[in-house]
Amino acid sequence: MATKIDGETYLGEAVTLPLSADGQVTVYVWPCRILNIRGTGMGGPTIGVDVGNTETIRYDCHDTPGHWHKGGYDMLGRPGNSHTDFPEGLVRVADQVEWALTQIKENGSDLLKESEQADAANLLDSAMVDKALDGIRAHLKRSNGLREQAIADNLIAPTE
Fold first, then answer.
1. How many domains does the chain contain in total?
2. What confidence tier does 69 reach under pLDDT thresholds 50, 70, 90?
3. I need a surface site. Which of 2, 73, 88, 128 has the fewest CB within 10 A?
């Protein structure tokens, strides 16, 4: 799961769900992860895929500054080494979340292999992936409004 670092605040409860029968491949969500970077707050849901205790893929669904990390997030040393922009035009949190979940479902195995986690890629269970992603969606629905509250509380800068 995402390691809490200085300058981050988390709202809501994190949920971790298995993607493999042995429980070694999991997906997690923080409903609202808030980052303070150079005095500007940004944030929203963060979704990630872990292999054991290694965060491998991360989706930071933060509206206009949203992005994702591939290629082995924890293994590449620093976030900038794995930073990837969302596809052009994908700027709304809800759309970023759905895109991220679709990527996990449709490309999870390939993304794990790209992250040098081929054994984990082979462990993915499609029925468990579907159930876990439905669980992530349901948890985010239950946690609805946290980002808006963080904006109202001036923890996250509103985007245009």
1. 1
2. confident
3. 88
